[in-house]
Amino acid sequence: MSSPFRYTEPLPPRSSTGTVAEVYTQIALDFGIAAPSTFVVLSSAPELLAPTWALMRESLIAGAGSRTGKELVALGVSLANKCPFCVDAHTVLLHATGDHALAERLARGEAPKDEEHARVLAWGRHTRVPGAALAPYPFPRAHAPAYLGTALSFHFINRVASALLTENLLPAGAQRFRAVRSLAGRTLTRSVRRPARPGTALALLDHADPGEAPAWAGGTAVGLAYATLLRAALAGADLLDTDDQDLVEEVIQDWDGAHPPLDLSGFPDRRERPGARLALLAALAPYRITDEDVAAWRRPEHTDHCLVHLVAYGAFVAVDRIESALSTQIGHQVL
């Protein structure tokens, strides 16, 4: 069986210990999948793995609101980011919620029949554009921490998956068959419908001060998970020199949510600034990362841990740009 991993070789989940093993245990219980590759790929960096899981769990799984609605947000984000792996995953998870007809309409590229579902899906897609007008929300305001957390969680997970995984959710692309999607979803139904107690994932996080939780999280566990992942992911900037860090942050500050042109004009040359190129690709078009890009940057001292951190840094610079614009918009609404 071919490996789903590109550029890294994570340890088999059965050999995990410590925090990684604890995360896998929680994932198996609350997500229903023993070791999904979207999380296994982060296992060389437990300080990233734990808050990534915590943010997804506390928003998508344990957060307030409809699981179908949050799956639609995650799917909308994944469509906007051109992440086929995650699009397929959330189509399967819609089968798990019992929304079989909705899942198959979306698999065919059709819009939902239900207007509320269509608004939620469109809202998720629109979150890729920093500063886009996202209010009024297509969900109750009391559910905003969970829906916003879900969107930001998958803006990060999409980028990691596109950079470091193949496109196939299942071996040989079996998820392309309707019967397989439906069956895979049904095997997850019990886990998806089981109530999850909010806050459980926080015990897995580093107890060091992560910084201030964002106001939009409303004091929920989503905020602490987001703040912890922000700190861990942005620590990857240390893999770049100051000039490269400045370049990455300047480009992302001016980013309008668009996908880059086919010729990648404006991206640093991989021979001259391979680290900055990788980070910017992870932020804006991780599906465009090539073997040559990784080889140009990688040195003997660059372990899988380093590559995961560099990708996470680039990915989260984009997420932080989206979140910062969102926080500004919410602040203006309050005023």
Overview of the molecule:
The chain is mainly α and 335 residues long. Helices cover 57% and strands 0% of the residues. The termini are far apart.
Shape: globular
Tally the helices: what do you get? 15
Helices and strands, in N-to-C order? HHHHHHHHHHHHHHH
- Name the beta content range: under 5%
Provide mean pLDDT, rounded.
94
What structural category arises from helix and sheet content? mainly alpha
Whole-number radius of gyration?
A: 19 Å
* Helix share bin: 55-70%
Contiguous runs where pLDDT drops below 50 for at least 5 residues: none
Query: Using DSSP, what is the number of strands?
Result: 0
Give the termini separation: 56 Å
The profile of the biggest β sheet is: none
Write a compact overview of the structure shown:
With 335 residues, this protein is mainly α. It has helices spanning 18-30, 37-40, 46-61, 67-80, 84-96, 100-107, 115-126, 144-164, 178-187, 189-193, 221-234, 242-253, 274-284, 291-297, 304-334. Helix content is 57%, strand content 0%.
Name a few traits of the molecule.
335 residues, mainly alpha, 57% helix, 0% strand, globular
Layout of secondary structure:
Layout: H1 18-30, H2 37-40, H3 46-61, H4 67-80, H5 84-96, H6 100-107, H7 115-126, H8 144-164, H9 178-187, H10 189-193, H11 221-234, H12 242-253, H13 274-284, H14 291-297, H15 304-334
Helix pairs in contact: 1-3, 3-8, 3-11, 4-5, 4-7, 4-8, 5-6, 5-9, 8-15, 12-13, 12-15, 13-14, 13-15
